[in-house]
Amino acid sequence: MPPSPRHIPTGSALAAAGGLALAASQWLVFRHAPVEATMGLTQKIFYIHLPLAWWALASFLVVFAGSILFLLRRNPATDAWCRAACEIGVLLSGLALLTGMLWGRQAWGVWWTWDPRLTTTLVMWFVYAGYLVLRGLDMPAPRKRVACAVLGIAAFCDVPLVFLSARLWRSIHPAVFASKGGGLEPEMKLAVIACTLSMGLLWAGLLALRTGQIAQEERIETLEGLAGQDD
């Protein structure tokens, strides 16, 4: 039985609320948070870069957990959640890489450097992009779902490395909430928390919306297959 498309109305409402909240949080970014002394206005990229990165990791966590659950129960609805989460995760991580390059050009003087955080993030993006390529292959749906679930579990091995890379290896990537020296001013922390929560609301809406769309696609394909058998 294909998954139900009932998530679409909920997803639309959540996505709209998240978009409005993210837009409203820009007041905190540009009016409440101070301008960073060294980088100036370029530092404001941070307030969108960090939420993109964190919710990309959350997307891949959903793929990992959903893949395990699918192998246990073989529920197509769980597979739809995994597909939707991976699509969103690849989009968000790609945008995180692009905004990071813009930020890095100002901070380090180069568009790209093989820093551990950047390198592991790029590897992660390629692995999950490969997951989507596998989704597009012409093969029986049950077999494809199992293959994607296995890859979804294996691909997650890189996600903890992305999160811990700045701590495990010498990295020039800045720490976000440093405990000793540096770190963020209270106004900056408030702005980044607001942006992260707003992005999370948008992320949840997009996940539900895309899952509902996938459910509709699968139902249409099922009906077309049944119509073909009747002919």
The number of helical segments is 8
The counted number of beta strands is 0
Query: What structural category arises from helix and sheet content?
Result: mainly alpha
The 3D shape can be described as globular
As for the CATH topology, it is: Four Helix Bundle (Hemerythrin (Met), subunit A)
| Count of domain modules | 1
Description:
- By secondary structure, this protein is an all-alpha fold.
- It has a single domain (7-230), classed as Up-down Bundle (Four Helix Bundle (Hemerythrin (Met), subunit A)).
- Helices cover 77% and strands 0% of the residues.
- It contains eight helices and no strands.
- It has helices spanning 7-24, 26-32, 46-73, 76-108, 116-135, 141-155, 158-168, 186-230.
- Mean pLDDT is 87; it is low at 177-182.
What key phrases describe this protein's structure?
231 residues, Four Helix Bundle (Hemerythrin (Met), subunit A), globular
Layout of helices and strands:
Elements lengths: L6 H18 L1 H7 L13 H28 L2 H33 L7 H20 L5 H15 L2 H11 L17 H45 L1
Helix pairs in contact: 1-8, 2-8, 3-4, 3-6, 3-8, 4-5, 4-8, 5-6, 5-7
